[in-house]
What we know:
Elements (H helix, E strand, L loop, with lengths): L34 H15 L7 E4 L6 H15 L3 E7 L6 H11 L11 H14 L3 E7 L9 H15 L5 E6 L10 H7 L2 E4 L5 H15 L7 H13 L4 H17 L7 H11 L13 H13 L2 E2 H11 L6 H13 L3 E7 L5 E7 L3 H10 L1
Parallel strand pairs: 1-4, 1-5, 2-3, 3-4
Antiparallel strand pairs: 6-8, 7-8
Bound molecules: adenosine-5'-triphosphate (ATP) and magnesium ion (MG).
Amino acid sequence: MKSNIFEKLGVDGSVFLDERHLYPDFVPEKLLHRDREIEGLARIFNLLVKGRKPHNVFITGPTGVGKTTVARFVLSEAEEFTERVKSLYLNCFEFNSRHSVLSGITNFLGRASPRRGIATDEIYTSMLESLSKAAFSPIIVLDEADQLFVSSEGQKLLYDLLRVTEFGKNSFCLVLVSNNESLAFSLDERVRSSLGEETIRFSPYSPEQLKDIFRERVGLAFLPSSVEEEVIGFVAAKCALLGGDCRIGIETLLKAGREAEKHGLRKVSLVHAKKAFESVEGASLLKGVKYLSAAEKTILSIVAKNGEIKSGRVFELFSGSFSQGMSERRLRDLLNGLEKKGFLLSEQIILGNQGKTRSFKCMVPAGLLLKEISKN
Length: 376
Ligand SMILES: Nc1ncnc2c1ncn2[C@@H]1O[C@H](COP(=O)(O)OP(=O)(O)OP(=O)(O)O)[C@@H](O)[C@H]1O
Ligand SMILES: [Mg+2]
């Protein structure tokens, strides 16, 4: 391919060639060290690509190890290869109820279905009808699937989808992605065996693999020779200690570059990387924050600001700071939900008068959390 003269030109005074290659939504063309996982997933989708009945897949592994990226890559390859396959990707931080997932699928299958104002069972029926008429084979990806289990409806939703994949003449392939491998154990045996017909486990990247990935990304995002090699080594070592999380490394590189730029320097060095790393260390823990409701964010801020706090006190502070009223019962439900989502941890406390209460604390560094909440 002919290269363009602007490709190699950065902006004056910048270390970046194109910093967008370090943004969270950038999809790399080249996925290093994931050949086995890519091939495994492609083999499963190949059944569908070739017109046969597919297996459902459970993709699991720690955070930031490429599960979502690999899944999206293989799906786009499948769609490019044949018109027979079309995929729907739902992030369950956003689609976290039975209703919203079923209407998301129904819309995708070609029938407009409102997200509210229609009974869930009706949507299910309409999803089945649309499926029987669909002229393509659908692949449905439920990413961050653990979010479905925050409410009791998750299991029911999986039953619904299972009924389709097990008995439907016209079926779809279901892909569940989660970093909680034990998710499957919380499921009924039948749902578990059918949804987990195939499991693809992503292991953490080694420091050497992380170096390769970061070096590749640095080559796309930074001007030649503007990042010292020891920066890559440092970032890879830190990320390896955190379980092989690439997301943190990529964000560190972006912040380190901006730090160098702020000081008018043409080279990113270890000092910048160290400073940047401190500010993004908890990034993966915070990825769900932007999907929380205003009330949930207020509750989290209260807990974060108070260290350990009893539920009654959360209620008092909440009532004082949140304009819309809320019952104590509803507030307790939200606290429980936030615990299931991994933001809070509770402990039961026996009171002197034999009564009980619960105290809550944050599972995420409070400073980082408050900063993230103030952003959105
Ligand atoms: N093999 C790889 N090559 C290049 N970039 C990668 C690779 N693996 C991961 N990345 C990058 O790392 C970041 C995190 O990857 P991804 O979002 O796929 O992780 P994940 O396993 O889905 O994490 P989570 O469980 O937190 O959702 C993305 O920016 C992605 O581009
Ligand atoms: Mg993911």
